[in-house]
Amino acid sequence: MMDLDAWLAKTKLVVCVGSGGVGKTTTAAAIGLRGALKGRKAIVLTIDPAKRLANSLGLDAMGGEPTRIDLSALPDAGGELWAMMLDSRGTFDALIANVSPSPEARDRILKNHIYRNMADAFAGSQDYMATEKLYDLASAGRWDLVVLDTPPVKNALDFLESPGKVVTFLDERILSWFLAPYERKNVWGGRLLAGTSAFMFKLLGYVFGKEFLDDLAEFLQDFRGLYDGFRHRHQAVMSMMRATDTSFVTVCAPNESSIDVARFFQVELAKRDLPRAGVVVNQVHRCDAADDDANAALGVAVARLSTDLPPATAATLLARLGRAHVRLRALVEAEHALAGSLRAAAKGGGFYQEVPRIEGEVHDLTSLRAVGEYLFGAPAEEA
Ligand SMILES: Nc1ncnc2c1ncn2[C@@H]1O[C@H](COP(=O)(O)OP(=O)(O)OP(=O)(O)O)[C@@H](O)[C@H]1O
Ligand SMILES: [Mg+2]
Predict the structure, then answer these.
(1) Percent of the chain at pLDDT above 90?
(2) Between 196 and 186, where is the model more confident?
(3) Which pTM does this prediction carry?
(4) Of the bound ligands, which one is closest to the alpha carbon of residue 26?
């Protein structure tokens, strides 16, 4: 059975994936906090539009800058916990600055009208920004544990390919096609160009005007200069993702669709040669008492609490509670059976861990630490 604290101690980057609402953000925060409790300098990067993580960490709001979480309520925390929400636009501008061959090219691109529009479109794809930010944080040297919370989409792993998409966009052949008319002299001096590209540009010129096309050409010419920068970063991101101290953790809830998505992620991670650390089944129901024991205990409780109740009412109450207990046991068994395939797969390596549903929501450091204690505590029983 795997020791999860030993696993975390060797891990520098954790990526939490899973379907919507299962507890990815909660798990990411709980892992970060666990790291801080063990003396690590941890940062949790979330791309949640909702401010749940901020709230559960006692922050009013979380910005695009790393924010240190006040852990004074947990005096045993020897490390640091930081959190950060993604500011996509800022990240994109920073990325352009990082890969630009010269300050002049950078300024031209950042001011370019088309870039501004495109950056807005790109900024919408938070998954891409996540990879960028992640890379910066992981290589900054300021934190020794980075935990990434991914967006609740089945194609969450696409974020790994996103930089690849930019590289494809910048592919020489595509750019050459666009830029062909500009690379011949006197394009706008009335010389007719041959080929589709020329035709397209003429058409675009009619529709959008020459100024727009000049902007576009300037933008693409500068962008071409970024190709190497993007390619190198993409390679660096991919090798970081495949590093031995990187771990993907799949989070799911104990229901059929979420477990299906978890299995899907396990397969996709394997296909992409990405390090799978294990699976967390979050918010499972717990019921430790056998029916007879529960009935006896309920009988005592009802008798004690309801000495004023008419006997018939007390009997009805007891019968209802007894049935509720039977249903809870059935639910626990059904959840256990559903997760069977994940448990079996975990035997081949990686951890399988269950975290029970905690009373109320996970809304503060104490409940977050409780989630961590379950997560890192005694492993779930073998099937
Ligand atoms: N073990 C738990 N016990 C009780 N409540 C939990 C537990 N885990 C998560 N929650 C609650 O469930 C809700 C969803 O959790 P969370 O936001 O972490 O899920 P998510 O997978 O990040 O969601 P999304 O896909 O929307 O980003 C939150 O209100 C959280 O407090
Ligand atoms: Mg979330």
Answers:
(1) 29
(2) 196
(3) 0.78
(4) 1
**Residues with a CB atom less than 6 Å from ligand 1:** 20-26, 48, 52, 152, 282-283, 355, 357-358, 361-362, 371
**Residues 91-142: pLDDT tens digits?**
667 777 777 778 888 888 888 877 776 666 555 555 566 677 778 888 889 9
Q: Which residues of 6-25 are buried (b: 16+ CB within 10 A; e: fewer)?
A: ebbeebbbbbbbbbeebbbb
Which of 213, 180, 209 lies closest to 197 in space, CA to CA? 180
25, 252, 353: residue to mutate for ligand 1 pocket, most atoms within 8 A of CB: 25
* E strands in the chain: 13-18, 41-46, 67-68, 80-85, 145-149, 246-252, 276-284, 351-356
31 CA from centroid of ligand 1 (Å)? 14
**Residue of 89, 150, 148, 168 lying closest to 123 (CA atoms):** 89
DSSP 8-state assignment for residue 188: G
Q: Whose CA is nearest to atom 16 of ligand 1?
A: 23
Q: Which pair of structure tokens corresponds to residue 131? A: 């990879």
| Cβ-contact 152, 21 below 8 angstroms | yes
Which of 361, 367, 374 for a ligand 1 pocket mutation test, highest count of atoms within 8 Å of Cβ?
361
Q: Which ligand is nearest to the CA of 18?
A: 1
Strand partners, 238: none
Rounded to an integer, what distance in angstroms lies between the CA atom of residue 6 and that of residue 375?
13
> What are the structure tokens assigned to 340, written together?
């069977």
Of all atoms in ligand 1, which is nearest to the CA of residue 358?
Answer: 3
Distance of CA 73 to the CA centre of its chain: 27
